[in-house]
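Attaching the record inline, Q. Sequence:
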Amino acid sequence: MTPQEFTKTYYPFALQSQQKTGINALAVMAQAAQETGWGKTVVGNMLFGVKAKSTTPANKKQLLTTTEYHKTNSVKYPVVISITKQPNGLYKYRIKDYFMKYDSPKESFDDHSDFFFRNPRYAKALAVKGDANKFVDEIAKAGYATDPNYAASLKSIIKRIQQYV
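Structure, as predicted:
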């Protein structure tokens, strides 16, 4: 799937989410593009890398391989494949962890937007939810992803998506 095809396929869901929640559709699309490699890895309709909880029913979670970054080399995951110290002092983990599984892309988009409202740590992000760039800055600061370049990556993707909408 090309970035243009990805945008054409999923932007309607992002717009529905924006209408429902006020979270900028470009920010939502950037996260989906980043988390799935522009649709290359959409396992179980999971577009946003939302982790499953221990209380998540078995039919709604899936064990997937991913990369995480931490300040310490002692973080626990269901499966740790490797830990590599990075030049910036962080530890890069290749792991398997449980992520949400959805029946449809719409369910993934709905849960993604609800996720921000369920978690108080995103209050600052929700205060700027209409501005895509400010929103991604705030979700990155609040710890949505462990990648230290998450906000910068999303801003780059936002610019690209703007070409297609």
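The chain has a mean pLDDT of 94. The beta strands are 61-70, 79-85, 91-100.

More tomorrow.
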